[in-house]
Amino acid sequence: MSVTNALLDETRRLATEYLESLPTRRVGAPATVEQLRESLDLPLTPNGVDPLVVIRDLHHAALPGLTASSGPRYFGFVIGGTLPAAVAADWLTTAYDQNAGIYATSPLASVVEEVAAKWILQLLGLPSSASVGFVTGCQMANFTALAAARHGVLRRVGWDVEARGIVDAPRISILIGGEAHVTIHTSLRLLGFGTDAARRIETDDQGRMRPDRLAEALKELHGPVIVCAQAGDVNSGAFDDLAAIARLCRPAGAWMHVDGAFGLWARASSSRQQLANGAELADSWATDGHKWLNVPYDNGIVIVADPLAHRGAMAVQAPYIEQAAPTVRDPLEFVPEFSRRARGLPLYAALRSLGKNGVADLIDRSCEHAMQFAALLGREPGVQILNDVSLNQVLVRFEGADPGASDALTRGVIRRVQQEGTCWLGGTTWQKRAAMRISVSGWMTGKEDVRQSAEAILRCLRSERGTT
Question: Which ranges in 125-257 belong to alpha helices (H)?
Answer without folding.
Answer: 138-156, 161-164, 182-190, 211-219, 242-252
